[in-house]
Amino acid sequence: MQQSAYPQTWHNQHIYRALDCPELAADMSQARASLAGLAVFITGLALAPGNPDALTDGLREVRLRARRIREIGWNVAVLAACRGSQDARDPLARQWASRARALNADLFKTLAPIEDLMLGLPAPEFERLMADPLLGEEAYRLRHERRLQDQRLPVAAEQLVIGLGTDGLHAWGNLYNDLAGKIRLTIEGRDMGLAEASNLLSSPDRALRRAAFDAISAGWEGEQETVAAILNALNGWRLELSRQRGRVRTLDALDLSCHQSHIERATLEALMAETYRARGLGQRALGLMAGRLGIEAMGPEDLFAPPPAASSRAIPFEEAVDLIAEAFARFDPEMGDFARMMAERGWIDAAPTPNRRTGAYCTKFASPVEPRVFITYGGTQDNVITLAHELGHAWHNWLIRDLPMSQRSYPMTLAETASIFAETLVRSALFEQAQSPEERLAMAWAEADGAATFLVNIPARFDFERALVAERASGYVSPARLKALTDEAWGRWYEQSLDRYHPMFWAAKGHFSIAGFGFYNYPYLFGYLFSLGVYRQLMSRKGAGEANVAQAYRALLRDTGRMSAEDLVARHLGQDIREAAFWRQSLEVVEGAVTRLAELVGEPESGVN
């Protein structure tokens, strides 16, 4: 691949010059000293609401002191995570990540009495405090958390949970990331890590895809006992904590996940029910792709396969950025400029490195508020779409950079809206600009592949995790049982559309081992269908000549950290996502995408419909 004019490694030196620079150590020392002072201040603070003015002044001081501590901890954590993504074996990255987690945990422990007060205040006194401009910045978050006040443990117990989680719960997720960074594979005589091997799953050569798939599966098979221990520990911790919290009212794992996702249980149930009814769309897409590939049915190694007529030319990184920027600019010129700015400023890390972690993500520094994107770019079309996805997240973060920190934190359900909206912009633009049947097929293929991923694979992950949580409540879940649960979930959703399933998916997919989140799956489905609904409505308004459509989209994204998903949709789209009708509208868009592929390749004589 030709040399790119854009840097492909992060430029973070203006945050801290390096993990071993004296400025970073000095800031962490300052944060620790400030935290000690904050603890003393809170101990001497009169928390009883009997003196309203004194309480307000004290809480304002607490918030101001805590803000800088949190910014330092956040920045160090992000910098360490960035370096650890480039090299999972970097000892300084691990060391500073641990110190940042400890600082953040100690800050939350110190603030636990304040949190307990704010969540337990009578409504009139709480609302009086929220009328203060500074304290009111957290009004939505606190109102949301007050709904689970009956799940709170005593302050000392909450502090214990936070403290133990640093080297308990989160250590398991860190162990998984370490495993992903250290696994080495040999594929066709080449030694490589998981990240590089994963890119081979997009190869036009089926034999190479199968070799990569088998090597990746074997690599995780060798670590199956460790990954099983990780999944059992994470889910065991969550179940026990839920039991301890449920003295007044028992909430199951999905109730808690919906709260974390800022959606109602009725919304999740409507989403999953409509998706199950529409699973045939995803299966049909797989059948169409299999027919075009000249195989009877897709295998798990074929799920990222390009169409056979697709160009094997590697797309240079610079070209990918330009393609994405131009597609973004057709909807919002500033969004296009932003994509180029991300690349020009070195805010995207794309170059392969030894011991590199798998996957792609977007993160952000707290001060200055700047997004960062991580991807292992190999020049495939799938890489281009993934880059667009992460730049969609980055645009979301950029739009809210001026908001208070608590309002810059949004749930996963709404986070995926911006990323998949960005994907849709790029796919639609490239399809319209296609000059040849091969180019049109490539775009239609990508859209149909998305239908298969979101309507079949993501729900299968959700079903697997529901089953895992249920079985973990009765005891340890073995690797053999995890494989069986995976096959059962894939069978319910894929049915006969694959020639076999992927029994090691529970280990290979890192989402199941994320410590901070359970059910890191359905939010992607939510974001996919929700973003398609948003896209359909906004593009319809734009086509009708309505002005300020891009601004309407920006306004929606800016509200994602300060209202529930239901309220967001009601305000900006005038619809109710608890009703099946909302999701059916989005599924009509998916059906159109699958039909477009069928028109280009023709329905196979046999296969899944």
TrEMBL record:
Similarity comment text for this entry: Belongs to the peptidase M3 family.
Domain Peptidase M3A/M3B catalytic: 200-584
Cofactor: Zn(2+)
Highest taxon, organism lineage: Bacteria
Cofactor note: Binds 1 zinc ion.
Record SUPFAM superfamilies: Metalloproteases ('zincins'), catalytic domain (SSF55486)
Species name: Aeromonas bivalvium
GO molecular function, one term: hydrolase activity
Name the UniProt record assigns to this protein: M3 family oligoendopeptidase
Oligopeptidase F N-terminal domain ranges (all copies): 120-183
